[in-house]
């Protein structure tokens, strides 16, 4: 895939198989947010055989707990949170159709295996660049779990949201490759 | 000499420091990004460092937080023994945190109880470290600490026989195991000596230094330089995606130790290395 290709959810298996580690991708369209507490709730609902408050099929979940929006802003600073905390829940969500995850930091082997098995990708956003990333978010609305405050599930409308493919559906891992290349 | 300092004065100062620390990245960090961009071999790494510079510009211009994780409000107090408070200084500081995090549109990330708790919705209570010094002023430093980097920290009760080489290996290994999680390029605080709880405080206190500010003891200053080089040879790079820039600096703080103990602590700060100080 060429540099800075644009992807728009919902994503198909074919869309996913075009993505390789190191690709720079811009996301335009609607994505969901979710972090620790929201993941636990979704996970528990699936385990209990109940339906989810949001449809994750073909979707991308962004691991973020935004800062409050100042007056005149649609959202506060909104950079990625550390992804490994969502590792216990991510494989089950992929099994139920989740195609992409945006966060920061390495994923566990079971999560990497699930990406291969269920054809999904992990996309790295720049941690700590919350003010910059918020510029690519055009609207935000809470779609579930309002009681969780910053951890509520939101639907974000994003435009040219910049990410790098860190794990692809072929088992590639940019974190391992990067260290291999630059270690002295 | 006795000097009265009011509840309002402390509250307003703490509120301003909370906001300033979250909106305005230190000039030392900005300069460090610029100089490390020159030496970064990875294209992705350079791009990320440029994004961080741009992020700092936007945060400053628009007065919004640099990062959505606006941190646990860690407050360091150096209280002059000649200072007299009206009321309770702990309450005044928490009032300041409440005001700063609410009026500054900063994210509230504190749960009232670690297991049973709900969000306190005002980012209180603060973590407060207090020392007493001669004089009639109070020095207040607010260092909001994000969870991602804090989680990569560790205390190790080493054996005295491990010596300084053991300390160095532990620090480098801790950074290696942290990989991308603490948002590299990081700042690494190291505590050596004291007791179990005090060494963690030393590592935290080390993070209050500005980039390039060496330990005044040349022995430890050399170790800081050596550790920085070893860490930047790990290849972790900006956001862990590979590169030369893993940490911007390493700071060591020390304290006398018990003959049987050799505590070492590593406290990692992300590239949003926040700390702002006021003297009132």
Reconstruct the topology from this structure.
The complex is a heterodimer of chains A (184) and B (280).
Chain A: E1 5-7, H1 13-17, E2 24-33, H2 36-47, E3 60-62, H3 90-95, E4 100-103, H4 109-118, E5 121-124, H5 130-134, E6 137-144, E7 153-167, H6 174-182
Parallel strand pairs in A: 1-2, 2-3, 3-4, 4-5
Antiparallel strand pairs in A: 2-7, 5-7, 6-7
Chain B: E1 3-5, H1 7-23, H2 27-39, H3 43-62, E2 72-80, E3 83-85, H4 89-103, E4 127-133, E5 138-145, H5 147-150, E6 154-158, H6 163-178, E7 186-194, H7 196-206, H8 218-232, E8 247-257, E9 262-269, E10 276-279
Parallel strand pairs in B: 1-3, 2-4, 7-8
Antiparallel strand pairs in B: 2-5, 5-10, 6-9, 7-9
Q: Which strand order spans the largest sheet of chain B, edge to edge or round the barrel?
A: 4-2-5-10
How many distinct folded domains of chain B? 2
* Portion in beta strands of chain B: 15-25%
Query: What is the CATH level 1 assignment of chain A?
Result: Alpha Beta
N-C termini distance of chain A: 30 Å
Tally of individual helices of chain A: 6
Q: CATH superfamily name of chain A?
A: Fe-S hydro-lyase, tartrate dehydratase beta-type, catalytic domain
Radius of gyration of chain A: 15 Å
Share of residues in strands of chain A: 25-35%
Order of helices and strands of chain A: EHEHEHEHEHEEH
Structural class of chain A: alpha/beta
Based on Cα principal axes, name the global outline of chain B.
Answer: globular
The N- and C-terminal alpha carbons of chain B lie at a distance of 15 Å
């Amino acid at each position: 895939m060429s540099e800075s290709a644009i992807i728009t959810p919902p994503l198909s298996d074919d869309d996913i198989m075009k993505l390789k580690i190191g690709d720079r991708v811009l996301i335009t369209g609607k994505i969901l947010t979710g972090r620790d507490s929201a993941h636990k709730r979704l996970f528990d609902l699936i385990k209990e055989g109940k339906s989810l408050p949001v449809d994750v099929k073909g979707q991308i979940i962004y691991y973020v707990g935004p800062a409050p929006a100042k007056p005149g802003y649609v959202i506060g600073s909104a950079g990625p949170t550390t992804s490994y905390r969502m590792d216990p829940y991510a494989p089950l969500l992929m099994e139920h159709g989740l195609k992409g995850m945006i966060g920061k930091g390495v994923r566990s082997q079971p999560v990497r295996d699930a990406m291969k098995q269920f054809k999904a990708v992990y996309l790295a956003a720049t941690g700590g660049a919350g003010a910059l990333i918020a510029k690519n978010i055009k609207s935000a609305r809470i779609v579930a779990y309002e009681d969780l405050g910053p951890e509520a599930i939101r639907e974000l409308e994003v435009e040219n949201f910049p990410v790098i493919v860190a794990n692809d559906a072929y088992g590639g891992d940019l974190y391992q490759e990067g260290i291999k290349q630059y270690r002295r | 000499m006795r000097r009265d300092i009011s509840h309002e004065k402390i509250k307003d100062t703490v509120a301003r420091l909370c906001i300033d620390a979250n909106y305005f990245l230190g000039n030392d960090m900005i300069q460090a990004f610029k100089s490390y961009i020159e030496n970064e071999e990875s294209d992705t790494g350079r791009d990320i460092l440029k994004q961080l510079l741009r992020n700092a510009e936007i945060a400053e211009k628009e007065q919004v937080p640099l990062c959505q994780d606006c941190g646990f409000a860690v407050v360091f107090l150096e209280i002059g023994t000649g200072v007299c408070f009206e009321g309770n200084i702990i309450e005044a500081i928490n009032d300041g945190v409440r005001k700063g995090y609410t009026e500054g549109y900063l994210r509230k990330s504190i749960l009232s109880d670690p297991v049973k708790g709900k969000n306190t919705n005002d980012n209180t209570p603060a973590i407060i470290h207090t020392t007493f010094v001669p004089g009639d002023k109070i020095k207040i430093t607010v260092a909001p600490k994000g969870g991602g980097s804090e989680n990569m920290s560790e205390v190790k009760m080493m054996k005295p026989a491990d010596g300084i080489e053991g300390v160095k290996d532990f620090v480098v290994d801790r950074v290696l195991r942290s990989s991308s999680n603490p948002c590299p390029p990081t700042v690494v605080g190291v505590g050596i000596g004291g007791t179990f709880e005090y060494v963690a405080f030393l590592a935290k206190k080390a993070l209050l230094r500005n980039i390039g500010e060496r330990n005044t003891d040349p022995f430890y200053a050399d170790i800081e330089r050596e550790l920085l080089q070893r860490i930047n040879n790990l290849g972790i790079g900006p956001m862990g995606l590979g590169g030369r820039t893993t940490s911007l600096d390493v700071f060591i703080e020390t304290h006398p130790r018990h003959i049987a103990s050799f505590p070492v602590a590593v406290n990692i700060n992300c590239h949003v290395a926040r700390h702002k100080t006021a003297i009132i």
